Amino acid sequence: MREQKAAYRITDLAQSERPRERLAKLGAQSLADAELLAILLRVGVQGENAIQVAQRLLTEFHGLIGLHRTPYEVMCQEHGLGPAKTAQIKPALEIGNRMRTMSPDERSTIHSPADAAALLDFDMSALEQECDD
To answer: Which of 105-118 are b and which e, b meaning 16 or more Cβ less than 10 Å from the residue's Cβ?
Structure first.
């Protein structure tokens, strides 16, 4: 049985502290990963608001990269997710990945092995393990 946490609702927060309001005022870049994920989740579960669920998921899956790596079916089994919410999170991560590669005029110039590694980091982070091929 899950431990009951002290539940507070997002509406209990000051308006300036709510993720959607912070997004509108400060921009997405100003939000923590848990706040961004909470916006995608929209609602929490009994005993946890969306921010708390998001923080738990980020901890359990070891951050956004862990969520990216985790198979859809595994995420669907996580308390607070399921097929619908997982189907919101996975595409959002993929959109971020695709946007990174869409804009030719904003592509990074590769001057070193570190530059190349940084460009491949996101794609490779989704792999289970390295191959010797």
So the answer is: eeeeeeeeeeeeee
Handedness of CA 122, 128, 129, 131 (dihedral sign): negative
Q: For residues 121-127, give the mean pLDDT.
A: 65
Alpha-carbon distance of 5 to 102, in angstroms, equals 43
The residue extents of the domains of the chain are 10-96
CA distance 15 to 22: 8
Q: Provide the pLDDT confidence category of residue 1 given band limits of 50, 70 and 90.
A: very low
Ordered alpha helix ranges (H), the chain:
19-26, 33-41, 50-60, 63-69, 72-76, 83-102, 113-125
- pLDDT tens-digit profile of 36-88? 999 999 988 888 989 999 999 999 999 998 998 899 999 999 999 999 999 99
